[in-house]
Specification:
- This is Tat pathway signal sequence domain protein.
- The chain is an all-beta fold.
- It has a single domain (about 30-465), classed as Methylamine Dehydrogenase, Chain H.
- About 5% of the residues lie in helices and about 40% in strands.
- The protein is built from two helices and 34 strands.
- It is globular, with a radius of gyration of 21 Å.
Length: about 475
Amino acid sequence: MRRRTVLATALLAAVTAPGTARAAGPGPSVTKKGTTRLDSQAIYFVSYDGLVNNNSFQKNGLLTYKGYQYAAWYTSTRNAVVARRVLGGSTWSTVTLSHTLKSDDSHNVISMGVSRTDGRLHLTMDAHSDGFFYVKSVAGLLDNPASTAWTASVFGAVRTTLDGLALTSQFTYPQFISTPEGRLQLSYRVGISGNGRNALAEYDGSAWTALGEWTSSTGTYTSSHGSSSARNMYLHGIDYDAGGRLHAFFTWREQNAAVMCSSGGITNHDTGYVYSTDHGRTWRNDAGTLVGTTGRPDTVAVTDSGLVVDSLNPDHSLMNQESQATDSTGLPHAIISYVPGRFSQCTTNYVSDRTANGRAFHLRKNSSGTWRKTEIPVPLNSSQRTKLVLDRYDNAYAVFPYGRIAGASKSSGYTDWALLYDGSGLNAFGEVVIDETRVGADHVLSFMYQEKSSGTTPSALHVVDFALPA
Protein backbone atom coordinates (compact mmCIF):
# COMPACT_ATOMS: atom_id res chain seq x y z
CA MET A 1 0.00 0.00 0.00
CA ARG A 2 1.28 3.40 -0.86
CA ARG A 3 2.22 5.42 2.18
CA ARG A 4 3.06 9.04 2.51
CA THR A 5 4.96 10.60 5.35
CA VAL A 6 5.30 14.34 5.63
CA LEU A 7 7.11 16.32 8.26
CA ALA A 8 6.46 20.04 8.35
CA THR A 9 8.18 22.35 10.80
CA ALA A 10 6.78 25.66 11.95
CA LEU A 11 7.94 28.76 10.17
CA LEU A 12 10.43 30.70 12.24
CA ALA A 13 11.24 34.39 12.08
CA ALA A 14 14.65 35.36 10.77
CA VAL A 15 15.99 38.91 11.04
CA THR A 16 17.15 40.17 7.65
CA ALA A 17 17.78 43.81 8.50
CA PRO A 18 17.42 46.06 11.54
CA GLY A 19 13.73 46.26 12.36
CA THR A 20 12.78 43.87 9.59
CA ALA A 21 11.89 40.19 9.94
CA ARG A 22 10.72 37.55 7.55
CA ALA A 23 9.68 33.92 7.87
CA ALA A 24 12.39 31.32 7.46
CA GLY A 25 12.02 28.67 4.80
CA PRO A 26 9.99 25.56 5.47
CA GLY A 27 11.53 22.62 7.25
CA PRO A 28 12.26 19.26 5.61
CA SER A 29 9.45 17.19 4.15
CA VAL A 30 9.08 14.36 1.65
CA THR A 31 5.93 13.46 -0.27
CA LYS A 32 6.06 10.32 -2.37
CA LYS A 33 5.12 11.13 -5.96
CA GLY A 34 5.45 7.70 -7.54
CA THR A 35 7.69 4.85 -8.64
CA THR A 36 8.72 3.75 -12.13
CA ARG A 37 10.28 0.43 -13.11
CA LEU A 38 13.51 0.43 -15.08
CA ASP A 39 13.91 -3.32 -15.44
CA SER A 40 11.88 -6.27 -14.19
CA GLN A 41 14.90 -8.57 -14.42
CA ALA A 42 18.06 -6.66 -13.48
CA ILE A 43 21.18 -8.65 -12.65
CA TYR A 44 21.39 -9.66 -9.00
CA PHE A 45 24.31 -10.98 -7.00
CA VAL A 46 25.72 -9.85 -3.67
CA SER A 47 29.46 -9.22 -3.39
CA TYR A 48 31.29 -7.04 -0.89
CA ASP A 49 27.87 -6.77 0.79
CA GLY A 50 26.52 -4.80 -2.18
CA LEU A 51 24.86 -4.87 -5.61
CA VAL A 52 26.52 -3.78 -8.85
CA ASN A 53 23.44 -1.72 -9.83
CA ASN A 54 23.08 0.04 -6.48
CA ASN A 55 26.42 0.93 -4.96
CA SER A 56 26.10 4.39 -3.51
CA PHE A 57 29.63 5.39 -4.54
CA GLN A 58 28.74 5.39 -8.24
CA LYS A 59 28.54 8.98 -9.45
CA ASN A 60 26.28 9.11 -11.28
CA GLY A 61 24.10 6.04 -11.87
CA LEU A 62 21.13 8.38 -12.12
CA LEU A 63 21.22 12.01 -13.28
CA THR A 64 19.07 14.83 -14.62
CA TYR A 65 19.95 17.29 -17.38
CA LYS A 66 17.83 19.76 -19.40
CA GLY A 67 14.46 18.22 -18.64
CA TYR A 68 15.42 14.56 -18.98
CA GLN A 69 16.51 11.95 -16.46
CA TYR A 70 19.08 9.26 -17.33
CA ALA A 71 19.79 5.90 -15.67
CA ALA A 72 22.33 3.13 -16.29
CA TRP A 73 22.48 -0.49 -15.12
CA TYR A 74 23.15 -4.12 -16.07
CA THR A 75 20.36 -6.47 -17.18
CA SER A 76 19.95 -10.13 -16.24
CA THR A 77 21.77 -10.96 -19.49
CA ARG A 78 24.73 -8.84 -18.22
CA ASN A 79 24.22 -6.17 -20.88
CA ALA A 80 25.02 -2.58 -19.99
CA VAL A 81 22.05 -0.34 -20.70
CA VAL A 82 21.30 3.37 -20.48
CA ALA A 83 17.79 4.79 -20.37
CA ARG A 84 16.11 8.18 -20.36
CA ARG A 85 12.69 9.68 -19.65
CA VAL A 86 11.14 13.11 -19.74
CA LEU A 87 11.58 14.45 -16.23
CA GLY A 88 8.71 13.17 -14.13
CA GLY A 89 7.42 10.91 -16.90
CA SER A 90 6.35 7.30 -16.40
CA THR A 91 8.02 5.73 -19.46
CA TRP A 92 11.73 5.00 -19.87
CA SER A 93 13.37 4.47 -23.26
CA THR A 94 16.30 2.05 -23.13
CA VAL A 95 19.43 1.62 -25.24
CA THR A 96 21.58 -1.50 -24.98
CA LEU A 97 25.31 -0.77 -25.20
CA SER A 98 27.85 -3.14 -26.74
CA HIS A 99 29.30 -4.21 -23.41
CA THR A 100 28.54 -7.07 -21.01
CA LEU A 101 29.54 -7.27 -17.36
CA LYS A 102 32.73 -9.30 -17.13
CA SER A 103 32.56 -10.56 -13.53
CA ASP A 104 30.27 -10.80 -10.51
CA ASP A 105 31.88 -7.94 -8.61
CA SER A 106 29.70 -5.22 -7.14
CA HIS A 107 32.49 -2.66 -7.60
CA ASN A 108 32.05 -2.83 -11.39
CA VAL A 109 29.40 -0.12 -11.48
CA ILE A 110 28.34 2.14 -14.34
CA SER A 111 28.89 5.87 -13.80
CA MET A 112 27.69 8.70 -16.04
CA GLY A 113 28.81 12.26 -16.63
CA VAL A 114 27.80 15.28 -18.72
CA SER A 115 30.19 17.52 -20.65
CA ARG A 116 28.19 20.71 -21.05
CA THR A 117 30.68 22.18 -23.52
CA ASP A 118 29.50 19.74 -26.20
CA GLY A 119 26.33 18.15 -24.82
CA ARG A 120 27.72 14.61 -24.61
CA LEU A 121 26.86 11.82 -22.18
CA HIS A 122 29.90 9.86 -20.95
CA LEU A 123 29.93 6.44 -19.24
CA THR A 124 32.59 4.33 -17.55
CA MET A 125 31.88 0.69 -16.73
CA ASP A 126 33.11 -2.51 -15.20
CA ALA A 127 36.39 -1.86 -13.36
CA HIS A 128 37.84 -2.97 -10.03
CA SER A 129 41.60 -2.53 -9.80
CA ASP A 130 41.94 -3.42 -13.47
CA GLY A 131 41.07 -1.96 -16.87
CA PHE A 132 37.94 0.10 -17.51
CA PHE A 133 35.43 0.48 -20.36
CA TYR A 134 34.36 3.88 -21.68
CA VAL A 135 31.78 5.16 -24.14
CA LYS A 136 30.46 8.62 -25.03
CA SER A 137 27.52 9.86 -27.05
CA VAL A 138 27.50 12.07 -30.12
CA ALA A 139 27.83 15.80 -29.47
CA GLY A 140 24.59 17.62 -28.69
CA LEU A 141 22.65 14.53 -27.61
CA LEU A 142 21.82 16.00 -24.22
CA ASP A 143 21.17 19.52 -25.50
CA ASN A 144 18.43 18.47 -27.92
CA PRO A 145 16.95 15.29 -26.44
CA ALA A 146 13.47 15.68 -27.89
CA SER A 147 14.78 15.91 -31.46
CA THR A 148 17.67 13.43 -31.20
CA ALA A 149 17.05 9.73 -31.75
CA TRP A 150 17.61 7.58 -28.68
CA THR A 151 19.27 4.57 -30.28
CA ALA A 152 22.53 2.66 -29.96
CA SER A 153 23.83 4.57 -32.98
CA VAL A 154 24.20 7.78 -30.93
CA PHE A 155 26.84 6.08 -28.78
CA GLY A 156 30.28 5.39 -30.13
CA ALA A 157 32.34 2.27 -29.77
CA VAL A 158 33.14 1.00 -26.29
CA ARG A 159 36.83 1.63 -25.59
CA THR A 160 39.37 0.69 -22.94
CA THR A 161 40.90 4.19 -22.95
CA LEU A 162 39.55 7.73 -22.76
CA ASP A 163 39.60 8.34 -26.50
CA GLY A 164 43.16 7.02 -26.64
CA LEU A 165 44.29 8.28 -23.23
CA ALA A 166 45.36 5.27 -21.15
CA LEU A 167 45.11 6.01 -17.43
CA THR A 168 46.15 3.01 -15.35
CA SER A 169 45.92 -0.79 -15.34
CA GLN A 170 44.50 -0.58 -11.79
CA PHE A 171 41.41 1.61 -12.17
CA THR A 172 38.50 1.78 -9.68
CA TYR A 173 35.75 4.13 -8.46
CA PRO A 174 35.11 6.39 -11.47
CA GLN A 175 33.26 9.56 -10.55
CA PHE A 176 32.44 12.22 -13.15
CA ILE A 177 32.35 15.86 -12.04
CA SER A 178 31.07 18.74 -14.16
CA THR A 179 33.11 21.90 -13.67
CA PRO A 180 31.40 25.30 -13.37
CA GLU A 181 32.74 26.19 -16.84
CA GLY A 182 31.20 23.11 -18.46
CA ARG A 183 34.22 20.85 -18.68
CA LEU A 184 34.06 17.28 -17.39
CA GLN A 185 36.47 15.74 -14.90
CA LEU A 186 36.93 12.11 -13.97
CA SER A 187 38.04 11.12 -10.48
CA TYR A 188 39.38 7.58 -10.02
CA ARG A 189 41.67 5.44 -7.88
CA VAL A 190 45.01 4.12 -9.06
CA GLY A 191 46.11 0.95 -7.23
CA ILE A 192 44.24 -1.25 -4.77
CA SER A 193 42.44 -1.06 -1.45
CA GLY A 194 44.98 -0.18 1.24
CA ASN A 195 47.59 0.90 -1.31
CA GLY A 196 46.20 3.38 -3.82
CA ARG A 197 46.15 7.00 -4.94
CA ASN A 198 43.38 9.27 -6.19
CA ALA A 199 43.79 10.88 -9.60
CA LEU A 200 42.01 13.23 -12.00
CA ALA A 201 41.52 13.49 -15.76
CA GLU A 202 39.78 16.33 -17.62
CA TYR A 203 37.77 16.64 -20.86
CA ASP A 204 37.58 20.08 -22.49
CA GLY A 205 35.06 19.26 -25.20
CA SER A 206 37.62 17.94 -27.67
CA ALA A 207 40.10 15.72 -25.80
CA TRP A 208 40.93 14.12 -22.47
CA THR A 209 44.02 15.12 -20.46
CA ALA A 210 45.48 13.28 -17.47
CA LEU A 211 45.97 15.77 -14.62
CA GLY A 212 47.66 13.14 -12.45
CA GLU A 213 47.54 11.76 -8.94
CA TRP A 214 46.77 14.04 -6.01
CA THR A 215 46.92 11.75 -2.97
CA SER A 216 49.73 9.64 -1.52
CA SER A 217 49.74 6.03 -0.34
CA THR A 218 52.99 6.35 1.64
CA GLY A 219 53.96 7.56 5.10
CA THR A 220 53.56 5.98 8.53
CA TYR A 221 50.31 5.91 10.49
CA THR A 222 50.48 4.58 14.06
CA SER A 223 47.54 3.63 16.27
CA SER A 224 47.59 2.32 19.83
CA HIS A 225 47.88 -1.20 18.38
CA GLY A 226 50.48 -0.90 15.64
CA SER A 227 51.67 0.89 12.52
CA SER A 228 51.02 0.88 8.79
CA SER A 229 53.16 2.26 5.98
CA ALA A 230 50.65 2.06 3.10
CA ARG A 231 47.02 3.12 2.59
CA ASN A 232 44.51 4.72 0.27
CA MET A 233 42.24 7.73 0.64
CA TYR A 234 38.56 6.86 0.18
CA LEU A 235 36.48 9.83 -0.95
CA HIS A 236 33.05 10.53 0.50
CA GLY A 237 32.55 12.62 -2.61
CA ILE A 238 34.12 15.25 -4.84
CA ASP A 239 31.87 18.17 -5.73
CA TYR A 240 31.94 21.81 -6.85
CA ASP A 241 29.89 24.36 -4.96
CA ALA A 242 28.09 27.25 -6.65
CA GLY A 243 31.16 29.44 -6.28
CA GLY A 244 33.51 27.03 -8.04
CA ARG A 245 35.32 25.53 -5.03
CA LEU A 246 35.96 21.79 -5.23
CA HIS A 247 35.31 19.93 -1.96
CA ALA A 248 36.35 16.44 -0.85
CA PHE A 249 35.68 14.62 2.43
CA PHE A 250 37.55 11.37 2.94
CA THR A 251 38.69 8.61 5.25
CA TRP A 252 41.98 6.70 5.21
CA ARG A 253 42.18 2.90 4.90
CA GLU A 254 45.40 1.35 6.16
CA GLN A 255 46.97 -1.69 4.51
CA ASN A 256 48.28 -3.25 7.72
CA ALA A 257 45.61 -4.82 9.95
CA ALA A 258 47.99 -4.38 12.90
CA VAL A 259 46.47 -0.91 13.44
CA MET A 260 43.18 -2.52 14.59
CA CYS A 261 42.16 -4.11 17.86
CA SER A 262 40.67 -7.07 15.95
CA SER A 263 41.29 -8.55 12.52
CA GLY A 264 37.53 -8.71 11.93
CA GLY A 265 37.20 -4.94 11.89
CA ILE A 266 38.07 -2.50 9.15
CA THR A 267 41.18 -0.28 9.04
CA ASN A 268 39.39 2.97 8.14
CA HIS A 269 40.19 5.90 10.44
CA ASP A 270 39.47 9.63 10.74
CA THR A 271 37.35 11.90 8.58
CA GLY A 272 39.41 14.39 6.64
CA TYR A 273 38.59 17.34 4.40
CA VAL A 274 40.42 19.22 1.66
CA TYR A 275 39.37 21.70 -0.99
CA SER A 276 40.66 23.17 -4.25
CA THR A 277 40.11 26.62 -5.74
CA ASP A 278 41.83 25.83 -9.05
CA HIS A 279 39.87 22.87 -10.42
CA GLY A 280 41.81 20.24 -8.55
CA ARG A 281 45.30 21.39 -9.48
CA THR A 282 46.22 22.17 -5.86
CA TRP A 283 44.65 21.12 -2.54
CA ARG A 284 44.33 22.92 0.79
CA ASN A 285 43.32 21.84 4.26
CA ASP A 286 40.49 23.47 6.20
CA ALA A 287 42.82 26.23 7.42
CA GLY A 288 43.75 27.10 3.84
CA THR A 289 47.26 25.65 3.96
CA LEU A 290 48.54 24.07 0.75
CA VAL A 291 48.84 20.31 1.34
CA GLY A 292 49.13 18.86 -2.16
CA THR A 293 49.65 19.51 -5.87
CA THR A 294 48.10 17.25 -8.48
CA GLY A 295 50.60 15.50 -10.73
CA ARG A 296 53.55 16.48 -8.53
CA PRO A 297 55.44 14.61 -5.78
CA ASP A 298 53.87 16.73 -2.98
CA THR A 299 50.49 15.00 -2.94
CA VAL A 300 48.06 14.89 0.01
CA ALA A 301 49.44 12.44 2.60
CA VAL A 302 48.35 10.97 5.93
CA THR A 303 51.25 12.80 7.57
CA ASP A 304 50.04 16.24 6.45
CA SER A 305 48.74 18.45 9.26
CA GLY A 306 45.28 19.93 9.46
CA LEU A 307 43.48 17.27 7.38
CA VAL A 308 41.38 15.63 10.09
CA VAL A 309 38.06 17.32 10.92
CA ASP A 310 36.66 14.41 12.94
CA SER A 311 39.09 12.09 14.68
CA LEU A 312 38.33 8.37 15.07
CA ASN A 313 40.64 5.40 15.51
CA PRO A 314 40.34 2.20 13.40
CA ASP A 315 38.39 0.27 16.08
CA HIS A 316 34.87 1.53 15.27
CA SER A 317 34.25 0.23 11.72
CA LEU A 318 34.09 3.70 10.16
CA MET A 319 32.57 3.35 6.68
CA ASN A 320 34.36 4.60 3.57
CA GLN A 321 32.74 6.39 0.61
CA GLU A 322 29.66 7.63 2.41
CA SER A 323 28.29 10.97 1.18
CA GLN A 324 28.79 14.74 1.02
CA ALA A 325 27.11 17.91 -0.23
CA THR A 326 27.61 21.67 -0.13
CA ASP A 327 24.91 24.11 0.90
CA SER A 328 23.79 27.31 -0.80
CA THR A 329 26.55 29.31 0.89
CA GLY A 330 29.29 26.86 -0.09
CA LEU A 331 29.64 25.24 3.34
CA PRO A 332 30.56 21.54 3.27
CA HIS A 333 28.40 18.80 4.82
CA ALA A 334 28.99 15.05 5.06
CA ILE A 335 27.41 11.86 6.34
CA ILE A 336 29.74 9.45 8.13
CA SER A 337 28.85 6.27 10.02
CA TYR A 338 30.48 3.98 12.56
CA VAL A 339 29.87 2.09 15.81
CA PRO A 340 29.92 4.67 18.63
CA GLY A 341 32.05 4.04 21.68
CA ARG A 342 29.03 3.58 23.93
CA PHE A 343 28.44 0.27 22.13
CA SER A 344 32.02 -0.88 21.66
CA GLN A 345 35.60 0.31 21.77
CA CYS A 346 36.59 -2.66 19.59
CA THR A 347 34.46 -3.93 16.72
CA THR A 348 35.30 -7.54 15.90
CA ASN A 349 33.12 -8.01 12.79
CA TYR A 350 32.44 -4.85 10.87
CA VAL A 351 29.35 -6.17 9.05
CA SER A 352 27.55 -7.60 12.07
CA ASP A 353 28.70 -4.86 14.46
CA ARG A 354 27.65 -2.05 12.13
CA THR A 355 24.31 -3.78 11.51
CA ALA A 356 23.66 -4.16 15.24
CA ASN A 357 25.04 -0.86 16.53
CA GLY A 358 26.08 1.40 13.66
CA ARG A 359 24.91 5.01 13.61
CA ALA A 360 25.12 7.76 11.00
CA PHE A 361 26.33 11.27 11.84
CA HIS A 362 25.85 14.60 10.10
CA LEU A 363 29.22 16.40 10.00
CA ARG A 364 29.27 20.00 8.82
CA LYS A 365 31.09 23.30 8.92
CA ASN A 366 29.02 26.22 10.19
CA SER A 367 29.17 29.86 9.17
CA SER A 368 31.61 30.69 11.98
CA GLY A 369 34.07 28.10 10.66
CA THR A 370 33.44 25.54 13.41
CA TRP A 371 32.91 21.85 12.67
CA ARG A 372 29.79 20.30 14.22
CA LYS A 373 28.67 16.68 14.35
CA THR A 374 25.16 15.41 15.15
CA GLU A 375 24.15 11.79 15.56
CA ILE A 376 21.09 10.92 13.48
CA PRO A 377 18.69 8.97 15.76
CA VAL A 378 17.92 6.26 13.21
CA PRO A 379 19.75 2.92 13.65
CA LEU A 380 21.54 1.77 10.49
CA ASN A 381 20.31 -1.83 10.76
CA SER A 382 22.79 -2.41 7.96
CA SER A 383 26.51 -2.39 7.27
CA GLN A 384 25.90 -0.20 4.24
CA ARG A 385 26.06 3.49 3.32
CA THR A 386 23.75 6.48 3.77
CA LYS A 387 23.38 9.31 1.24
CA LEU A 388 23.09 13.05 1.94
CA VAL A 389 20.89 15.57 0.11
CA LEU A 390 20.32 19.29 0.80
CA ASP A 391 17.19 21.03 -0.49
CA ARG A 392 16.83 24.61 -1.72
CA TYR A 393 16.40 25.82 1.89
CA ASP A 394 19.51 23.90 3.02
CA ASN A 395 17.46 21.41 5.00
CA ALA A 396 19.32 18.10 5.18
CA TYR A 397 18.07 14.63 4.22
CA ALA A 398 19.77 11.32 4.97
CA VAL A 399 18.70 8.45 2.72
CA PHE A 400 19.45 5.29 4.64
CA PRO A 401 19.75 1.71 3.40
CA TYR A 402 16.39 0.23 2.40
CA GLY A 403 15.21 3.65 1.22
CA ARG A 404 14.44 5.15 4.62
CA ILE A 405 14.62 8.96 4.71
CA ALA A 406 15.38 11.19 7.71
CA GLY A 407 15.48 14.98 7.69
CA ALA A 408 16.71 17.93 9.75
CA SER A 409 16.05 21.64 9.39
CA LYS A 410 18.63 24.32 8.87
CA SER A 411 16.66 26.56 11.26
CA SER A 412 17.30 24.13 14.14
CA GLY A 413 21.02 23.98 13.44
CA TYR A 414 20.40 20.44 12.16
CA THR A 415 19.52 19.19 15.63
CA ASP A 416 15.96 17.98 14.94
CA TRP A 417 16.68 14.87 12.86
CA ALA A 418 13.58 12.68 12.51
CA LEU A 419 12.43 9.84 10.28
CA LEU A 420 10.28 11.12 7.39
CA TYR A 421 9.76 7.93 5.38
CA ASP A 422 10.24 4.37 6.59
CA GLY A 423 10.84 2.70 3.23
CA SER A 424 7.78 0.50 3.53
CA GLY A 425 6.63 -1.09 0.33
CA LEU A 426 9.95 -0.66 -1.51
CA ASN A 427 11.51 -4.02 -0.55
CA ALA A 428 14.86 -2.37 -1.30
CA PHE A 429 18.02 -4.46 -0.94
CA GLY A 430 20.11 -1.85 0.85
CA GLU A 431 22.07 1.07 -0.62
CA VAL A 432 20.36 3.37 -3.09
CA VAL A 433 21.70 5.58 -5.88
CA ILE A 434 20.69 9.24 -5.57
CA ASP A 435 20.09 11.61 -8.46
CA GLU A 436 22.25 14.43 -7.08
CA THR A 437 21.36 16.75 -9.96
CA ARG A 438 17.56 16.51 -9.86
CA VAL A 439 17.01 18.28 -6.53
CA GLY A 440 18.12 21.55 -8.06
CA ALA A 441 16.13 20.98 -11.26
CA ASP A 442 12.63 20.48 -9.85
CA HIS A 443 12.93 20.00 -6.06
CA VAL A 444 12.47 16.24 -6.25
CA LEU A 445 14.49 13.64 -4.37
CA SER A 446 14.85 10.76 -6.81
CA PHE A 447 16.72 7.52 -6.18
CA MET A 448 17.27 4.15 -7.84
CA TYR A 449 16.89 0.95 -5.84
CA GLN A 450 16.75 -2.77 -6.51
CA GLU A 451 14.39 -5.22 -4.85
CA LYS A 452 15.73 -7.89 -2.53
CA SER A 453 16.29 -11.30 -4.06
CA SER A 454 18.37 -14.37 -3.26
CA GLY A 455 21.38 -16.02 -4.83
CA THR A 456 21.61 -14.86 -8.44
CA THR A 457 17.88 -14.59 -9.12
CA PRO A 458 17.27 -11.32 -11.04
CA SER A 459 15.01 -8.70 -9.47
CA ALA A 460 13.21 -5.50 -10.37
CA LEU A 461 15.05 -2.17 -10.51
CA HIS A 462 13.09 1.02 -9.82
CA VAL A 463 13.31 4.79 -9.50
CA VAL A 464 11.21 6.42 -6.78
CA ASP A 465 10.48 10.15 -6.56
CA PHE A 466 9.70 12.33 -3.54
CA ALA A 467 8.66 15.98 -3.66
CA LEU A 468 10.73 18.27 -1.44
CA PRO A 469 9.73 21.78 -0.32
CA ALA A 470 9.47 23.97 -3.42
